Each structure stands twice: as structure tokens, then as C-alpha cells.
Amino acid sequence: MTVCCAPGADVGSARRWPSDEEVRLASRALSEQLMQTDLSVPSAHCAACIRAIETALLALPGVEAARLNLTTRRVSVQWLKDGPVPPFFATLTRAGYDAALYTHDQSEDDPEFGRLLRATAVAGFAAMNIMLLSVSVWSGADAGTRHAFHLISALLALPTIAYSGRVFFASAWSALKHRRTNMDVPISVGIVLTLALSLHDTLRNEPHAYFDAVVSLTFFLLVGRTLDHMMRRKARTAIVGLARIMPRGAVTISADGTREYKDVRTIAKGETLFVAPGERIPLDGTITEGRGELDAQLVTGEVEPVNAGPGDHVSAGMLNLNGSLTIRAEREAGESFLSEMIRMMEAAEAGRSGYRRIADRAASLYSPVIHTLAFIAFAGWMAATGDWHRALTIAVSVLIITCPCALGLAVPMVQVMAARRLFERGIALKEGSALERLAETDTVVFDKTGTLTLGDLRVAASTVPENHLEAAAALAFNSRHPAARAIASLRPDSRMAVEDFAEYPGLGIEGRINGALYRLGRPSWACRGVVSDNEKSMSALSCDGELAGTFTFADTPRPDAKEAVQALWEREFELEVLSGDGERAVAAVARDLGFERWRSAMLPADKVARLDELRGQGRKVLMVGDGLNDAPALSAAHVSMAPGNAAEIGRNAADLVFFNASLAAVPAALAIARRAGALVKQNLGLAVIYNVTVLPLALAGHVTPLIAAIAMSLSSILVVANALRLRGDTPKPVAAGRRAGKLAEAAS
Amino acid sequence: MSYLTWLIPIALLMGATALLAFLWSLRDGQYEDLDGAAQRILLDDGEDRPAAAGGPRYSRPEPE
Questions:
Q1: What is the ipTM of this complex?
Q2: pTM above 0.90, yes or no
Q3: CATH class of the domain whose range is A20-104
Q4: Do the chains contact at A114 and B26, CB–CB below 8 Å?
Q5: What segment(s) does the record annotate as region Disordered (chain B) (predicted)?
Q6: For chain B, which residues make up each domain, given as ranges?
Q7: Which terminus of chain A has a smaller tally of CB atoms within 10 A, N or C?
């Protein structure tokens, strides 16, 4: 069957499939006979996908069971341990799906979600039943029935609050312990006081009890909280499901020459590793044997491959393009280049931890005011009437009616909607506070390689005549070198047979086609006597020693990069490029895309320093980057985004991850965040208006349980309805800004 | 009043049953893949039991 619709994620095309050893390492044994492997299939999204994937996998010999989870986009396959590893990746690719190995990580287990769902269910059950009883009381039950109903309500409410309310009590307690206050403090105070007063009144057979209010309040707040949690869980699973970039293991060669595939974490200093062409360097080390070109894009941001031989130092994460290398590990996994990045990230994060979420800031203003008002009401009524019970009832009704039900829902509901809108556009939001920080952004800083560009070379100009082009493509098809891949993509269906193919790292490739010897590579090597001034960014093709033509290369910009930069510029963001690549490459891309400011040859520490400098100028910076070298900068920025094909460490450091190749995700995310920020402010405003309106009623002592229930439901519905207004489309750029004139100038 | 002594416990019991059913389905893993559940209804064949924490219970379909 055919693939039904366009895949949802198009990150990373030509990728190497994990070896059998790697698959075994990532699988777990279910029983004596069965192994289970989890594969993430990011592009699965409909019923036809379920059938195509499950049928394809079940048809493999040795596969006992296969089940696709469409929510996590992961398929679990059980297969016979004794047989060979079934060819999962080839099968799924044939069925039209990109797949990646998924390793179960303890940190992803999410007991909190189950706890929240159970708490919500219990609160919902109790709220419905108590409301049923309360309606009978409000419609005029006689005194005996009323008392009985209040008692039953108390019996339901007490265990419910004890069970479901823990969520708020625990959070409020930990805030108070650290001498802070958050949203949960006024909520907890309100819940506990209302419950206590209602119990007291029930036992004394008074006419009013607020059990319905307190339980439905808990229920509504828990619903908001559960939705919030679900959104973050969805984003996290989407990110975790992305393909792994850093190697999980490596082939070690012991002193007697035996080779063994080992987990990276178990490899000690001084061991000898073998890295085949197309694999990434697993650990920092020194080359002892072999010569080849290394793609260091992920590590340094340089697009041009580095030529390395015996004695050269290599860092974890570099991609071995064409040599068979033997490496002596010099650092263990815990202390390699990567962990140095992690250390820098931790240092950089300290600058951001000062951020307080808007709901907590609102609560810190709100709770002292409300608690003081309640206290004044109590004191005032006490002084006026001397009836402590009356005074306390009024003080508590002030707390109930102003209880931040609307406030507690106002922010999470908007963030849930915003996260949904972002997800529809292929952007995963890790936590709500990132959305608030994104809305404040005024400066966007981009990394170049892998972010503004895809890191793939493309042929910018060619002087090769048509009759030789097909031969060049056929020859280039045999190499993994980025320049060769660019040439091969010019004629992807070239079917010419290549004989005597050979690759000379650092120089080029050669092969015999239809009897003629073709060479493709450095001009001085391909064709003796030719001297070129830009040896590095140019390849020459020679046929039997005669120059046939040259190719020049450029970095491929990410789709929509120009439009995205333009859109940001029109919306008056300050833009800048920070790249680890050389000045010439950076300047070319930056000018092409319309940047006015860029810095090149930046080390990871330089990037962090530049971001600190911008922070010092009072700027709120969004950093967009992908490489290992960007990870500290991603942590240091006010808020950060990474593409889905970024290194794991970059994806983990970023607050948002976008899965589509298009850079349009950046302006889209900024637009949605700003709209969400406006809605949050509206919702907070609505909550304040509501409180100001009902507060006099409460202070005057006119609030009955019925009025409290109506007022609370109305305010909650109002803020939820307001949150639902959040749209996800990209707005048309408004041509009225400061830069509109400049635009018109540029256009004319 | 006397009918209330019957009706109220019955109402509570029904509510509690629903709550228990929900908690059971939660533990059984029926909420693990809501998107998949929505799509699987469109497939004619195959098993529609959830994959619980222990792994999939789905197995090779019988040859037709």
C-alpha cells in the first residue's frame, strides 16, 4: 500500500541505519525467548499508517508481535531472541516511514500524570454527587432532609479533598517552606478554611454549607492542571521520539585484535575504537591509524569537512565521512567535549533561573490583598456585631468568592491552547514559562550551520557540459562527502556503471566509466597543472586527465529562511547571526538572507559571552541553534529554539523544538506566543474585574452557597472561552511599523 | 423521606461504580494511546486491546 499523506516530520533524510549490535543494545529481554525493541516512527499519524507499519513488521520472520502507539508515535516490536535481528529499518523505509531506535529512559516515566488524572476523576465524582444534593437543598428541602444531605456531602467532600487536594497542598507547602508564595497558597488556604467552616456549620445544623463550592473548585483547577500536564507530556514524547544523533555504542578492538560492540558509557580511557565510514566519533580521542575527512558541523559549525590523519585529535560528535579510522579514546563518556558543554550549560542556566512565572507573580500580588481583605471583613463584622461565627462566615465567603478559580485557570488554559496551536504547526513547547518568555522576546540570534542553512552543500555553479554531468553524478554517488552528495543530487537517476572506484580523503574520488578515467575533487589533484585560488570551495572534474569543468558550492539555506528573516525584521526584532564557521561563509549566508549583523568563528564560550552582553543591554534574546557548540548558548538565552535534527543535547537545552524543515516556525512561534501573552493579560484582567464586582456582595454578607457556585462557574467559563479564541495562523505582516518605509525603499 | 434512604445510596453507588470503572481503565492502559484508539476503529481486522505497560498483547493475525 502507499503512504496515505505527507509525513508530519521531514527531518534528516539520508541517514545511516543502526547496526544489529546497536539494535540489540537498545532492546530489552521480555522473557527467555523474546526481545522487545521500541522504534519511534515520527511520521505515523493515521489508521492507514497503523496498518501499513504493523503489517510490514509482522510479515518479518522472527517478529512475534508489533503494536503502534499513535500518541507517542512509537512501535513496540517483539521478536525471537535466538534468531537474527529482523531488518526493521529497511522494512519501515520500504513501507515509507523513517524510523529511529528508541531507548526507554527512566526519567520519562510519568507517575505525576496518573496521579493528576486519578485526583481529577475522584474530584469529578464527588463534585457531581454533592452538586446533586446541593440543588435539592437550594430548591427548598425541609430542615431534616437538608441536614442529612449536608452530612452526606461532608462524608463525600472530606476524603475527596484529602485525596485530590494534595496536589495543591504539597505545592503550596513547598513554596512556603522556601519563603515564597505561589498560586497554590491562596487556593489551599481557601479550600481548607471553607471545608472547616462548612463542617462546623453542618454539625451545628446551620442552613448553609459550601461543600459543593469547595469540591467543584478543586475539580475545575485539577482539570486545568491535567490539561497543562498533558500538553507538556505530548511535547516531550515528540522530542524524545526524534532520531538519536550521538552514537550509543562503538566497536572496540582489544589487544588481541577481537572486536566487540560496547555501550559508550562502559568504554574506558585508552581503549582502541574502530570508526567505519559514515559513523560518528563516539568519544574524544586521537587517531592512531587511518586518514579521512571529518564533518565537524555539529561540533564547531564549520561546513567544510576537516582532513584528519594519525596524531590528530578528534571530538565526540564528528562524522567520519570516508576513512576507516582507529582511535584511541582519551576521555570517557562522562568527561568528553559533550560534558564540557553540559558544564557550561549549567553555569549559563543560572542567569535564567530568576524568571518567575506570570501566574506566580500575579499570586504574590493577589494573595496578600485577599487575605488582608478577609481579615478586615472578619475584624469589621466582629466589631460591629460581636458574633464571631457570623464574622468568620463572611470572611470565609470573601475567600471563596475571590478564590482564584478564574486566576488558576486563566493562565494554564491559554498555554494549553497555545501549545496545541504550536503543535499543529510542528513546534513542541516544553513548558509554559517558555511561552511567557517568548512573548517578551525582542532580539533573535541565529546559529548559521544547521539552523539558517541545512548544513548540506549544493552546487551553486557548474561549468561541466551535459555529456560529462551524468558521469560526474554516477561517480559522486559512491561517496559520502557533502560535495559529492551535492553533485550526485544533480542527476539522481544516473545509471552509469562505475568501475575501479577509489576515494582519496582530502583529494577526491576517481573511477572508470565507459573506459574513461574520471576524477572529481580538488582542481590541482583532478587535473595536474590547474591552479585555482579557491581550492576548498570548488571541485574540478577531469576525464582522462583533461579538465571537463568545475563545480562551485554553497550552503543550502533552510526552506523559507529568507521569508522568516524578512518577517522577523518587519516585526521589528533585532537580528543577529553567531556562527562557529569562518568569516567568508558566514558573511555570504548572512548577506544573502538579509542580516545586517553577524559574528563568525565564535567558540561556544564566545556565544554565551555575546548573549550575556545582550542581556546586559536589557535585551530579551531568543536563541535558535542546533549544534553541540550551541548548547550552552541555548541555555544562556532568555528563551531558545532548536530544529528537530539538532544534536540531542541541543534539543534538551532548547525550550521549543520545531520538527519541520522550514524556518517559518520561528516567526510563527513568536506570533503565537505574543497572542497568548495578550490573552493571558486579558484573562487576568477579567479575573480582577470579576473579583472587584463580587467582593462588595461578600463583604456585605450576601453570598449564599448558590450565589458562590453561580459566580465561580461563570468566571471559569468566561476565562476558558476567552482562551479558546487563540488562533494559530500567521498574521499578515503589518506594513505600518517603523521599518515599512525602509521596505518600500528597498522594493523600489 | 423513606424513598430517599434508597435513592441516595443507589445514586452514590452508581457514581462510585463509574469512578471505579474509570480507575480500572486507567490502570489497564486504555488512556495510553487515545489518538490510536480513535484511528483503529477504522481498521476492519486486528486486535484492539491496549498495549499495557508490559508490552503489546497484539499478535500475528490469523491467516484468512
A1: 0.75
A2: no
A3: alpha beta
A4: yes
A5: 45-64
A6: 1-28
A7: C
